[in-house]
Amino acid sequence: MKQVALLMDEDAIRRALMRIAHEIVERNHGVHNVSLVGIRRRGVPLAERIAANLALIENETLQVGILDIGLYRDDLAHRPFAPVNQTSIKSAMIDKRVVVLVDDVLYTGRTVRAALDALSDFGRPKAIQLAVLIDRGHRELPIRADYVGKNVPTARSERIHVEVQEIDGIDRVYVEKVPVIEGEE
Amino acid sequence: MRDLLTLESLSGQDIGDLLDLAQNMAEILDRPIKKVPTLRGKSIVNLFFEPSTRTRNSFELAAKYLSADVINVQKSGSSVEKGETLWDTARNLSQMAVDAVIIRHQVSGVPQQLAEILDIPVINAGDGSHEHPTQGLLDALTLRQAKGHVAGLKVAIVGDVLHSRVARSDIWALLALGARVSIVGPPSLLPSTYEELGVEVTTDLKEALADADAIQVLRLQKERQSTGEIPSLWEYRLRWGITRKTLQYAKPDAVVLHPGPQNRGVEIDSDVLDSSRSYILQQVRNGVAVRMAVLFRLLGGGHDE
């Protein structure tokens, strides 16, 4: 039987995203030179919420870029075909600016690597920072997040589900514990 | 989907998915660096047995924008001129570890035969008077961008429909996407068999263009005059040419498409071609995006079937 444990509810997600917004302001001494880029799909609504928080804190409206990393995957040949979705980023959002990449879960780091490659095709940022709602560990690349909503030590066999109102109709994060089959990790 | 040989064999859903993919690929053309690493390490052969500038360049750029390596093989100067069979050409390509073949051939059905021989994706870049699927896709994409949708539009295809692989692919794509299609041209150049598919067939330009949201003007192959299929270029232009005057038969906001190359002053007048109603340059741009989508669809993923 699958076991499910709730990690974050609506309030916890709201507070985490507000804290991340404050940290972004603090670290960058404001947001006048900051751009937000959400990694599709769930990084996009999270980035939009951080932008809304930043507008409250700093009274500055940040546009959110949408990035689909489908064309930058390093495992295309090993996966079934998946369509590429919309990317909307202007060079002006990237060049000489601090770009905060936003995603829901940081796991192996491969999605972030792909996103870093993609960003460099749009321009040359001053710096790139990474914000994630959940860091679940198990990195396969030397990548770490600058802003983390919640660190969740997990087993590889576990699955983290982030659900957001804009896509799933509910705000919550839960972990699904898949029973370990003998002989596997 | 392993090959792209026809649009006839694709559903409206398949075609719609390819158009969505192409729409998202089009964004890459607006970037400062128009290159993504998606097909890095893949090699593609452009095998063109018939002259072509636009289609061949478009496929080549599409492949290069996706970081694939491309070689162009043309009939002249290749071993085909020395009598090598298609079968042998194909076998040689397989031995060179090619990942996909794009083929244009003057004989209908050759891409299909090649696909049966090879175990890599084959893309039809135009075969005889059969089909030109990527052109059909780019025409549908251009229409969708111009009008916001394809379903419910009335599209008039004007000219030599009988010998046109573009018209055939357009008809399959447009019908699958829910458009109404009327074809019009000289009686000697109109296949009547399309009536069975629900395509309106007429020789009267005014009738075909009535209520049309879009007009696809086909290139008139001038040799049709020497073969007696049209009386004269002058008469052709008078009866089926798209001029500022005949354009008025269509809806006021009707858009004009042409697969190129154009015979200005024959099937279409310059003032129509160069007007704001004309989406011809957008078609060319969409051609690259559609071909990127097709290459990505066929090569950008493991086996999903």
| Subunit organisation of the chains | heterodimer
Number of E-state strands of chain B: 9
Largest sheet of chain A: 5 strands, parallel
Largest interface: A-B, 22 and 22 residues
Q: Based on CA inertia axes, which overall geometry of chain A fits?
A: globular
Gap between N and C termini of chain A, in Å?
Answer: 17 Å
What class do helices, strands and sheet pairing of chain B give?
alpha/beta
Which sheet architecture does the biggest sheet of chain B show? 5 strands, parallel
Percentage of residues in strands of chain A = 25-35%
Radius of gyration of chain A: 17 Å
Computed structural class of chain A:
alpha/beta
| pLDDT averaged residue by residue of chain A | 94
Briefly say what this structure is.
By secondary structure, chain A is α/β, with parallel strands linked by helices. Chain A contains five helices and eight strands, in the order E-H-E-H-E-H-E-H-E-E-E-H-E. In chain A, helix 4 (110-122) links the parallel strand 4 (98-106) and strand 5 (127-135).
Quick tags:
heterodimer; A: 185 residues; alpha/beta; five-stranded parallel beta sheet; B: 305 residues; four-stranded parallel beta sheet; 9 strands
